[in-house]
Amino acid sequence: IQEIENQRDKACVQNVNALSRTWQADGRSQGLLGHVITLAQAGLPLPSVWRDLNNSDMVVTSINDLLAIAGAMAIQTQNAYSNSWTLKSQVNNATTIQEVRNIIC
User: Fold this and answer.
1) Distance of alpha carbon 36 from alpha carbon 57, whole angstroms
2) How many CB atoms sit inside 10 A of residue 90's CB?
């Protein structure tokens, strides 16, 4: 189970693709993006640019640009958790060590 959770946690922070670019999705990047979206929704100005994995600036034209990136991160996280739930269920239903090994390897 711990190995499945470790794999899940790594999958949650893999780089994501959105708006024809690749974006960092580590915890810090997710947090910064979330804060900027929250502040923009509260009426503060959007940043003029958001920097992708290659350190190239993307001009931010609306909050939808940032929401697309955050959405890709959210989908990735949901998929990682969903996969981990499936694997954990399989491990819990396994009856031999070999079955467990086959699931997590």
Assistant:
1) 16
2) 15
What predicted TM-score, i.e. pTM, was given to this entire model? 0.90
Q: How far is CA 6 from the centre of its chain?
A: 14
The stretches in the chain having pLDDT less than 50 are none
How far does CA 41 lie from the centroid of its chain?
21
DSSP 34: H
With tokens 């269920």, the residue in question is: 89
Backbone angles phi, psi at 95, to 5 degrees: -115, -5
Dig out the tokens for 25 from the structure: 């999705």
33: which 2 tokens?
């993006």
- Whether the CB-CB separation of 81 and 73 falls below 8 Å is answered with no
